[in-house]
Specification:
The protein has about 270 residues and is mainly α. It is about 70% helix and about 0% strand.
């Protein structure tokens, strides 16, 4: 067969093949998307109320729970708008971060805490940081009180007052969600870029290290409070101290973590 004949046959074969029609996926109707979003919000209003109730227990009486619920619902709606089921992250885990963030942002805007209280916490953090640097270990409470030039009674009273400022929640870093993924990772916003996610991963490592350095009793209190979600009174019964002492130790543990994290982040920037 000549080259001309082969070319003619090839053309006929190509012409006889059925045309390939691109597969077009029909877009999801906007009404369906809106309905799904609304259903997510309706199904998780109870989550917002539970989070608001738990947060309100740690705040002064002038902060109204209804206000927390209102801003929490706004955070829930935002979470429903941003949620992408294809990522495989449970909506409950994804929404918690935005709901809590909305509540904490609202509290910061209210600026309900007096400056004297914020200064007291700053002084405590600085005293712990200074002693950590000098002693090369975690300081005892008597050493912290001495650094602050306070009697033990004055120091204990300060811890009781500072506890209302400690609003952020710390989850056990190795705890897992329904799909087996670490809770810390579930809380990451899928819209964040790789740089932001890398930064969060570094912070996770530093925080895990800081928690390991805490005195055993303070580590236990944080685990029972934030992981097991026990109340202060319930924790007191578990470890054999009064409720107010649990509150003091929790505040102290958080101050230790802040001092440790500042020191670690400062080392990274050098």
């Amino acid at each position: 067969m000549s080259a001309e004949q082969q070319s003619s046959v090839g053309k006929r074969n190509r012409q006889s093949r059925p045309a390939v029609v691109p597969r077009v996926t029909a877009p999801v109707p906007a009404a369906t998307v809106e309905t799904d979003r609304n259903q997510l919000v309706i199904n998780h209003v109870g989550l917002v109320k539970a989070m608001a109730h738990r947060l309100a227990q740690r705040l002064p009486s002038q902060v109204e729970m209804n206000e927390l619920i209102s801003v929490g619902v706004v955070g829930l709606i935002d979470a429903a708008d941003r949620y992408k089921p294809a990522l495989g992250v449970p909506f409950d885990a994804f929404a918690r971060r935005r709901v809590q963030g909305a509540m904490l942002d609202a509290l910061r805007e209210l600026d309900w805490a007096p400056r004297s209280l914020r200064r007291m916490r700053r002084d405590l953090d600085q005293a712990i940081a200074k002693l950590r640097h000098t002693l090369k270990r975690e300081p005892t409470e008597d050493e912290v009180a001495g650094e602050l030039s306070m009697s033990r009674a004055e120091y204990d009273k300060s811890l009781d007052q500072i506890r209302t400022l400690d609003l952020g929640a710390i989850r056990q870093l190795d705890a897992t969600g329904e799909d087996g993924s670490p809770l810390f990772e579930l809380c990451l916003d899928p819209d964040e870029g790789p740089d932001a996610q890398l930064h969060r991963t570094e912070l996770r490592t530093l925080l895990a290290s800081a928690i390991r350095e805490l005195p055993e009793r303070e580590r236990e209190i944080l685990a029972l409070y934030y992981e097991e979600e026990l109340t202060m009174a319930e924790i007191g019964k578990v470890i054999g101290v009064c409720e107010s002492r649990v509150s003091q130790l929790r505040s102290l543990a958080l101050s230790r973590l802040r001092a440790s994290m500042r020191e670690s982040l400062g080392d990274l920037r050098r």
